[in-house]
Amino acid sequence: MTSEAGPRPTDSSRVLVVEDSPEDTEAIQRALRQTHPELHTEFTSHGNGLVDLLLKQDELPGLVFLDLNMPGVSGHAVLAALRARPELRDVTVVVFTSSTAPAEVDACYAAGADSYVYKPVNFALFRTVLKGAVDYWQQSRNAAAGDGA
Question: Looking at the domain assignment, is residue 136 inside a domain?
Answer without folding.
Answer: yes
